[in-house]
């Protein structure tokens, strides 16, 4: 039987009620989603069922190859963070500026971190060979960028407002507009992945991915804030979004996915 949005809504409500019951019974605040969160079907099918394994490179010298960030085939350039300047023409859609800081659990800046983003275009389509959404491609927008955090832990991207898109988990399933973020620590194995959302998106209540972050405060930390000071006159709207890597105010990270 094909799942409907109504089926998923009921499961999301049940998961939220179960979490509130755990809190009322003295359970801890769950800043990260449960890996077996039932409404998110594809995660249930592929999430790790065992805890992470610590790699001891002293026992296998070849594993040292995993201990360097992968910056790609060339160094990061000054224009890699502007997704509107990667082609010969102007991309279609609303231009936006996204900026923030990468911080540790104590609020200290994390410097020199490779931050990558990827996203759908303004019509909600990815420039990927396995993309199945029949929305139009934009020949002037690839949807990929990267940058390094500065001495204050700041990052900055210029891009296009992404569109929502269907993802076929259930009947009439639509993802809210979002931008994927990837961060590298001091090793390739320290790669962390998360998603940034936009304020007041009407699709939030219906999306099992963002709703898998059951705690309201933790889920709100995935939503950027409109920041007029980041808006560029006559050019782009501005959004602020900080990424906290650890601690009680950590940003949700797609561990093991």
UniProtKB/TrEMBL annotation:
- Identify this protein by name: Protocatechuate 3,4-dioxygenase subunit beta
**Family statement drawn from the similarity comment of this UniProt entry:** Belongs to the intradiol ring-cleavage dioxygenase family.
| UniProt gene name | pcaH
Q: Which organism is it from?
A: Streptomyces dubilierae
Give the Pfam families listed for this entry: Dioxygenase_C, PCDO_beta_N
UniProt keywords, alphabetically: Dioxygenase, Oxidoreductase
Higher taxonomy: Bacteria, Bacillati, Actinomycetota, Actinomycetes, Kitasatosporales
Q: Which domain of life is it from?
A: Bacteria
Indicate the transmembrane segments per the record: none
EC number per UniProt: 1.13.11.3
Q: Which InterPro entries match?
A: Intradiol_dOase_C (IPR000627), Intradiol_dOase_core (IPR015889), Intradiol_RC_Dioxygenase (IPR050770), PCDO_beta_N (IPR024756), Protocat_dOase_b (IPR012785)
Ranges of residues in domain Intradiol ring-cleavage dioxygenases: 98-126
GO molecular function ontology, one term from the record? protocatechuate 3,4-dioxygenase activity
């Amino acid at each position: 039987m094909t799942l409907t949005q109504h089926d998923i809504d009921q499961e999301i409500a049940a998961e939220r009620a179960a979490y509130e019951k755990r809190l009322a019974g003295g359970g801890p605040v769950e800043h990260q989603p449960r890996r077996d969160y039932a409404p998110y079907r594809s995660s249930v099918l592929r999430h790790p069922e065992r805890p992470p394994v610590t790699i001891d490179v002293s026992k296998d010298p070849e594993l040292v190859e995993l201990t360097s960030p992968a910056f790609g085939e060339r160094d990061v350039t000054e224009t890699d963070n502007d997704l509107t300047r990667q082609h010969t023409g102007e991309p279609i859609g609303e231009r936006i500026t996204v900026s923030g800081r990468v911080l540790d659990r104590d609020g200290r800046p994390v410097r020199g971190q490779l931050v990558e983003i990827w996203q759908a275009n303004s019509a909600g389509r990815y420039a990927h060979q396995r993309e199945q959404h029949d929305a139009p491609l934009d020949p002037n927008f690839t949807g990929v960028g990267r940058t390094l955090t500065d001495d204050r832990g700041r990052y900055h991207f210029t891009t296009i407002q992404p569109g929502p898109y269907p993802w076929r988990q259930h009947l009439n399933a639509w993802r809210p507009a979002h931008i994927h973020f990837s961060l590298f620590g001091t090793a390739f194995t320290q790669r962390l992945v998360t998603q940034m959302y936009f304020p007041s998106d009407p699709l939030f209540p219906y999306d099992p991915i963002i709703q898998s972050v059951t705690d309201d405060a933790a889920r709100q930390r995935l939503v950027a804030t409109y920041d007029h000071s980041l808006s560029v006159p006559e050019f782009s709207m501005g959004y602020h979004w900080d990424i906290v890597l650890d601690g009680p105010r950590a940003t949700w990270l797609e561990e093991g996915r």
